[in-house]
Design brief:
With 170 residues, the protein is mainly β. It has two helices and eight strands. The strands form two sheets. A five-stranded mixed sheet has the order 2-8-7-4-5, with no helix packed on it. Strands 1-3-6 form a three-stranded antiparallel sheet, with no helix packed on it. The protein starts with 21 loop residues before the first helix and ends with a strand.
């Protein structure tokens, strides 16, 4: 997490200097402080990210390489608590696991290469990530609490993301 320190006004601000409309001068000062606050808020945001890099299509019988990236910058001890990934070359009828990591750190990338099936089939890749150990508890990439008996067991989204590779004629 990024900390931003702003000075705190401890005295009453001086009255506006202009001889024009005093309300307008106070409005300008308020707008300036509001603009400053809006500019600082994104610096306090937490980013949790899961991304699958896979080709959209592949020739039948060819080898493809797919990467899944997970990352958190939440701080306070949060890390990638669980990183699970699988692929299917038969449209999801059967799955082959290639990653079942625990305590994977702040950033982790897992890569798999496999041969796709026949033309007209679909190869699928899915990954699910649980971020844990921080102040937020066990959360998905959107920051929502993990539903261990619901979306986690069923590869729900979130915490899971998936990608489909359409297999075409060579």
């Amino acid at each position: 997490m990024h900390a931003v320190f702003l000075p705190i006004l401890t005295t009453t601000p001086a009255p506006p200097r202009s001889t024009g409309n005093p309300a307008r001068a106070w409005f300008k000062r308020g707008f300036y402080l509001l603009s400053l606050a809006v500019a600082v808020i994104p610096a306090l945001a937490v980013e949790r990210m899961v991304r699958i890099d896979a080709p959209a299509t592949a020739p039948a019988g060819s080898k493809v390489t797919v990467s899944i990236l997970a990352r958190t910058d939440a701080g306070d001890g949060e890390q990638i608590g669980f990183f699970h990934a699988e692929y299917s070359i038969d449209g999801g009828k059967t799955w082959t696991g290639f990653c079942y990591d625990e305590k994977a750190g702040l950033t982790a990338t897992r890569t798999i290469s496999f041969t796709v099936g026949a033309a007209g089939s679909k190869a699928l890749v899915r990954g699910r990530i649980a971020f844990r150990g921080g102040l937020a508890g066990d959360v998905d990439f959107k920051g929502a609490a993990i539903k261990w008996k619901d979306s986690w067991e069923g590869w729900g989204s979130p915490p899971a993301k998936s990608s489909t590779i359409l297999v075409r004629a060579p």
